[in-house]
Fold each of these.
Amino acid sequence: MARRTGDRAGVGLRLAAFGVVAFLYVPLAIIILYAFNTQSALFTFPPPGLTTRWFEVALSDRTLWAALRLSVTVAAIATLIALVIGSLLAAAVYRTRFFGREAISFLVLLPIALPGIVTGIALRSSFAIAGVPFSTWTLAVAHATFCIVIVYNNVVARFRRMSPNLTEASADLGATGWQTFRHVVLPNLATALLAGGILAFALSFDEIVVTTFTAGNQRTLPIWIFERLFRPRQRPVTNVAAILVIVMTFVPVLIAQLLTREERQAGP
Amino acid sequence: MQVTARRRGPAARISAVFHQHPWSKLTLLLLPGLLWLGVIYLGSLVSMLVYGFWSLEEFTGLIARDFTLGTYGKLLEPAHRDIIIRTFVMAAAVSAACAVLAFPLAYYMARYATSRMKTVLYLVVIMPLWSSYLVRALAWRQILTNEGIMNWGLERLGLEGVVRAILQTPIIGGPSVIQSYLALFIAFVYLWLPFMILPVEAALERVPRSYLEASSDLGARPWLTFRRIVLPLAKPGLIAGSIFTFSLTLGDFILPSIFGQSQLFLGQEVFLQVGVIGNTPLAAAFTFVAMIIMVGYLLVSRRTGAFETL
């Protein structure tokens, strides 16, 4: 449905479309506003006064920093695992037609298509049966499981756009498989890998459902925020942590989206 | 064979083996992923199923690892059955509302937006998805709380009575706005809406313009064209989107907890059984129901070609 000049949407449609956009963004503005609220237990609107003191309280809270550190560690390990497994699978599925190709795409999608409690409880059950104690690693394994699909999708899309002539030409010119990979395939995949990695990191950084069931008594940043919600005092500190999360993910994700813009536009 | 003579390093020998045996290469590419997803993940799903056949000994509080159908049987108790039905209905209602709300924006993006505008709108839709889930859930608690912005706005408009009337309505009402099903419903719709907009937009993008023109040339009113042409072609997108909206609602325990919902939802019950009561077998049985619902839904939707718009 390409646009044609002189073709304009009706007022009703435009209002509805931009109403939805407003619906998506007003709540985020509310979160930011209340981080500056002078009240410590209520969310009165309009706020009786504004202050930046919650930022100082939050930044001097050691448990917040510890939670942030755990979240970053888990997300980094999970992203690395997802990058390796996701791109290998993408290469296998893209290059060769074999029995079970469809099944692999389905299997990769399953951990995010099934409800979070399924993945969480399933992994928790097998950790319990295998006698594995909860640690950073149980979290990283759980997160990697649902991050694989993000890398996989990005890399498959890039492979589809890449001309097969490139690798053939490289082979004809006498390059070894490794040289072709190193000098032809990898440079073409680089931005897709970077984007996939950023998105996988963001997904892991933000996840809470699977995390709850595989963390034991460890606290990632989302769990830290969640636990604080049930404390009636210093409520705006939670909003400050929320802003921290938004700031940490917004710019990298925006970059990832811009890096993969062409795949979306090349679509049918 | 001068070329082979030049390739003598180990890398060259390996790539020669790969070249002669393409299957060896495929196996190596597939192996880590199959081990991870096939063994760790599918294996975990099986251990969850197994856990459901075990039970919690009431007196000792220990898990008896003896086969029983009793734990799955407990799902049929009225209180447990209600949890499953309540969650299922909420997931269906949320998916339907997301579909309705997604359509105008998706349609505008696919049909009227310039390519620059389309990129901007795409980013506008996708960014909330990647900005913290918890943050966005939290926002609704702060909006809907008694002294919050919603009541402030309604008071200015003189509409407090409407809220009171809604709260007194059975089913959707409750003791306060936050604790009502309606509030939970609104927040769920808000959280998952982008998951619906994107696939619907992708599906609408593929509707040939000429179909719409042909339909209108043949005298169809806009509404008829929408119902007979646009909607059927958008179906794969709607199904793909609903996979996410449905699945995410089924498995969520955070939002009902944040809203202090006392009528439990499936995810909350699972959380409670695992975290507080320590009855992992019952939690596994509940989770298994959620899994069966979703696997069934996925298998049906795969036939409609919905996966291509994911």
Amino acid sequence: MKKFLKLAVLLGFITTIMSGCAVNRATGSVDPSANLTAMKAMYVKKLPADDGGTNELIADKLRSKGVTVTTGTEPAPGNVDAVVTYIDKWMWDITMYMLELTITIRDPKNDFPMATGNSFHTSLTRLSPKEMVNEVVDNIYKGAK
Amino acid sequence: MVRTFARCSPLLAAGILALTLTGCSSPANRAAMTPQDVVVSKHHPYSLSVQTGGGANTGAMDSSNISDADFKAAIEDAVGQSKLFKSVVQGSGGDYELIVRVTTLSKPIFGATFTVEMETAWSLTKLSDRSVAMRKSVKSSGTATMGDAFAAVTRLRLAVEAAARDNISQGLKAVAEQNL
């Protein structure tokens, strides 16, 4: 039992070292045909498994850009200019933190990704969920017309 | 000697297991991202230029990524091999322009079987009048198991390359369905 515990601790330590590389990445891109500044109504599609309120953080950030935003798990209403989807990846290192966030702004008619942004910060340079959302949305709008 | 080895064996086992289950740094290979047997329903008698975006280089401490240059080369090779277009040109001198942006490359961090999810945005534009011939989201995935590669770095790269191959294959088939 003692040996097993020793092994588990060692494994955890080495795994942390191996997978916890200090990596920072923040990107954003917008399709040349998309005009983000003209999009005034968006719907943030909440992930059913999201209980951390990431959808609300994204909605609040977009509101600060002058966009009227609604959010929920239901299909998007017909009167929006864009549907916003996201993928958040979480990790544990002493506490849970958001490792990666990808936000995509889609054409509601055909699901085409008009703009996307991604931030990736490992444990040593971790950001709060709100800071992650701010970074991704700001990077998307940096590339807007 | 035997006693020393016995003392070190848990550390050795942990190291091997960690190296096997985790992964850092190995970029996707352009040749491995090129689908080999794409059968297209149509051959367009036009020239095509290809642009890519949304990719990322693979840093020394990063996990496998797809660089824009390698993804572009893989798409161009696949277009050439499938004869989807009459020719592939560099720059902006073609009849059509294909822009492919990587919007999602979701990779696992730890595990025995790695499944990578990928999404790209494909836009095909006729350059003479800038009319959009196709705008499509292409979703794909790629999986690599311990049977494919023991080392995690290699396994993750194989999964990324498989997702890219599938993505290019689906995208080209979608382009082939267009009436240009």
